[in-house]
Structure formats: structure tokens, C-alpha cells
Amino acid sequence: MLKNVIIPILITLLLATLALGQAASSGIEGNWIGALEFSGTKLRLAFKVVKVGDSLQAKFDSPDQGATDLDVDTVTFQGQSVKFEAKSLDSPMKKIHAIIKNESDRKRIEQLVNEEVTRFVGTMNETQRKAFRPLEANIKGVIPMYQMPWFRYFITFDPTPVLMKVKVPVLALNGELDVQVSSKENLALIAAALKAGKNKDVTIRSFPNLNHLFQTSKTGSLSEYAQIEETMSPEVLKTISDWVLARTRK
What we know:
3 domains, five-stranded antiparallel sheet, two-stranded antiparallel sheet, 9 strands, about 25% strand, globular, disordered N terminus
């Protein structure tokens, strides 16, 4: 299901999409500093990256939370940005989304979500708890959204059967710095569904350095949207217009 790909990206946004400046003058190895922004909160983060064989490994500190040497699961390049992902911290979200999918009673959803967060926090050491507190507050703060019927529909709807029925020409575009809808996972699934439905005219394309709004950006962070003067990348506009004209002139 495409939604199963989209939802974890929201968690990656909370945990690992940073506006970063590199202290080291060359290469990825060394110290990176940046800020994690969500729900009006800004936390300073410092990453220490080392190369082990052919792979990169990292740990990070959160000075504002008094947390040090927290594990990073993956370090990846995307456009002009570096993405650090701590997968262990998104573990409660899988169960929380299962709760939302299976429960319709508002009070029951609130109860079970709070119980899951409490259970998850109980598995952590003190350093991990400090690092998790902002996300914990964020999760509890959006419980009213979890209780809404539209949100339950959003995370349970599987667009694959619908896409398999689409026979008209399709143009699917995504910015590679999109932190709301991951370009790599979603474009691949869209293409697979259309191919399975034997659609004969499918164009799939991703754009480096573009965010969710197809603006040229540095990190893709939501906080960056209003700071960018560009409404939409000229390259995307040309791609769309060329695609439309090529099919309407036939």
C-alpha cells in the first residue's frame, strides 16, 4: 500500500530532516550541526559521522535535551542534503497506526495510543527518554487528529487497485527532497501499479533538489517552504507543459 510508505515519512520528518551545516571542510565524515523543527519546537542536534569500510555510521547529541551518543541507523545522501534516520524511535508509530486502523471509538483510540506511548517509553533508558520527549508530546498532541474518520480513511486507503484501473496517460512527478511523500518509494509503487494494470502511457520522473511543492530547496523541510521565493521550479513547469502538449497535439 502506498500509504504505508507515506506515513513513515512523516516520522522521518520529525526525527531526521535537518537544515544542516557541516563543520568538516571536506567529505561527509566529521561533525554536522543542525536543528530539528516541528510543532513550533527547535532542537539543536550534533552528528558525528565516521566511515567504517564502505559504509557510514553516526551517533548524535541533543544538547537541548541533555542526550548524548544516540544511535543513528542510516546515513544517506539526497540531493545536496544528508539524511540521518533513527528507525528505533518510529517503532511506536507502527502500533499506533494499527490502533487507528482497527479502532473507531474515539475514547478507545486515545486510551490505547497513550498506553502504547507509555509502554514504549518504559523500554528506554534515561538518555533515550530525554531524546523521545519532544516526539512523545507531538504524538499526544495529534491524538484528536487520529480520532477523526478522515484520518482513519487516509491511512487505510490503498490506491493500488484504483491505479491499476487507470488507462489514460499518467505523468507522476516527485521532488527528491520531498519529506512528506518519499519520491523513491512512492514513484516506484505508482509505476508498478500502473504497469500491472497494463497502462501503456506512463511517465515517471523525480527531480533532484526539489521539495514537496516542487521548489528548489536545500533540505526539503516544511519550515523552508515560506522562505523560498520560487513558486515552482521552471523545469517542472516545462516538463508538465511538454507532456501535455505532446499528447494534445496527437
